[in-house]
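task queued by scheduler; priority normal; single chain, no ligands, no partner chains; default sampling; output format set to structure tokens
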Amino acid sequence: MPHQPAASRYAQPDLYNRCGRSGLKLPRVSLGLWHNFGDVDDAANRRTLILRAFDLGITHFDLANNYGPPPGSAETNFGRVLHADLTAHRDELIISSKAGYDMWPGPYGDFGSRKYLLASLDQSLKRMNLGYVDIFYSHRPDPATPLEETMGALAHAVRSGKALYVGLSNYNPEQTARAAKILRELGTPCLIHQPKYHMFDRTVEHGLLDVLAQEGIGCIPFCPLAQGLLTNRYLAGIPADSRAGHDPRFLKPEHITEAKVGQIRALDALAKARGQSLAQMALAWVLRSPTVTTALIGASKVSQIEDNLGALKNLAFSAGELAAIEKILAG
């Protein structure tokens, strides 16, 4: 039986934020399916996470061709939930996918050629059983392919009706400015940029956010909670069921030093003084930038989604709080 969403899911009009200078609004918190939605994960839990997010007003679901494991399975699994439970609500959803990392054998399954990007988009649509995605990204720049070719492929995806908007991910400021100019000349403005951004990685503050503001491009930071470091998960050691405890590919135990834990504890105390969890404060801190449209969270439990959305109850920082955060991060 199709899911019946909660009638109150749009009760918070301030949950949505305009993306750059476009006409598109995105929820201030979006759900990414990078982890926990592959075939190795529990099917019932995958469905519960997606439906609870939608019930809470999260209308943007972010995927990529290689999400899993195995690669492609997150799109397949999302498509199953979409068509079993949310088909009637397709026009309320923003669904994104990306191509740019290694996806299939041979010379045509990686990076940024027109051949790879458009073939990958077709495969993603087939896996999700969709006629189009709302946003299609170049997942990373390709040093061996002319930027004009990669951007031309994105523009073609829109002209062919297989994507409504296009975006970039992992492009540096100079690459982003060039790409935005090419896309603008092709009549397909860049909607959004997806970089890594959190309290412990502020690379985007050194030029990228300025380029996005100048170009009118929205920003959707991934890993705003630093793979779970900016939560209370590691205050008393490394739990066995944590990211660092069972999947150290992206958060290695040796990176969780005593000095780092000391910073996390200090940030946690400041968050409590604000009436927030550490995760909520970390999300609010990323969203403080006027260029940031939405923060891209991951989740393995419904309670994490619910807690993360609580960040929206207190997005303001005093000058003293921001100064205290800077002092903590400076060590």
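post-processing summary
- The domain at 16-234+284-315 is CATH 3.20.20.100 (TIM Barrel).
- The chain has a mean pLDDT of 94.
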